[in-house]
Amino acid sequence: MSVMINLLPWREERRQRQTRRFHILLVAMLVLGTALGFVVARLYQAELETQRERNRYITAQIQELEADISEVRGYEEDAVELSNQLELFQTLQNERIKTVRVFNEIAQSVANGVIYQRLSRSGDTLSATAEAGSDRQVSEQLRRIEQMPGLGVAQFTELESDSDSARRVFRFEVKQQSVASDDDGTADGDADGDAEGSDQERDNEA
User: Fold this and answer.
1) Residue 190, pLDDT above cutoff 90
2) Most buried by CB count within 10 Å: which residue of 2, 42, 137, 201?
3) Taking the mean position of all CA atoms in its chain, how far away is CA 134?
4) What SS3 state is found at 128?
5) Would you say 202 and 169 are in contact if contact means Cβ atoms under 8 Å apart?
């Protein structure tokens, strides 16, 4: 006696159960994937926003730094201009002191009977045209020039005799020497006073 068992319903039911499990697993995987993708996207978005904030901060710092650099450049230009003006002022001050000193020494070295007609200076070279009553006065004047501490050896260039009188017109050049001053303020004050006297004396001689 044989018994026939029909397994088709059982197999069909098992297949349906497996299909349902597959669908449930598929839906679960889809939901999990969607959630994971959403989380990753949010993380990336947060990272992107953080980087944007960092970039904005860096840009603001760069702008501030550029403004500071521009301000420093302005200060540097002002400092250079001030340094140039100070250098020019010192040059003019030194030239003034040298001019006053040389005129004072010329005035102090004038020999009796000598009258200066023209006096000019180019750099450290002083050119003078003077009038004397005799050759002895010419020699005396050149000797006195050489005795001045701020003047070098006078270079005699020309001598003319006036046919109408015994006066001699002579020309010479001399180098101005550097002389150290113990007290600049006192030297300037004395130089100014001597310069006024020298100017007055030259006016009287003229």
Assistant:
1) no
2) 137
3) 57
4) strand
5) no
Strands (E), 94-167: 115-122, 125-132, 155-161
Amino acid at position 40, single letter: V
Q: Whole-angstrom Cα distance, residue 127 to residue 125? A: 7
As a whole number, mean pLDDT of residues 124-151 equals: 84
Q: How far is CA 80 from CA 76, 87, 89, 201, in A?
A: 6, 10, 14, 43
Query: Looking at residue 79, what is its pLDDT?
Result: 92
Higher pLDDT, 71 or 206: 71
Going by the DSSP 8-state scheme, the letter that residue 148 receives in this structure is: S
What's the average model confidence in pLDDT over 103-116?
83
Indicate whether 123 pLDDT > 80: no
DSSP 124: T
Q: Which amino acid is at 201?
A: E
Q: What is the pTM of this model?
A: 0.43
CA–CA gap between residue 77 and residue 72 (Å, rounded) = 9
CA distance 182 to 158: 37
**Which residues pair with residue 138 across a beta bridge?**
none
Averaged pLDDT score across all residues of the chain: 79
Beta strand 125-132 with 155-161 is: unpaired
d(CA 8, CA 59): 74
Q: Which two tokens stand for residue 82?
A: 């001030």
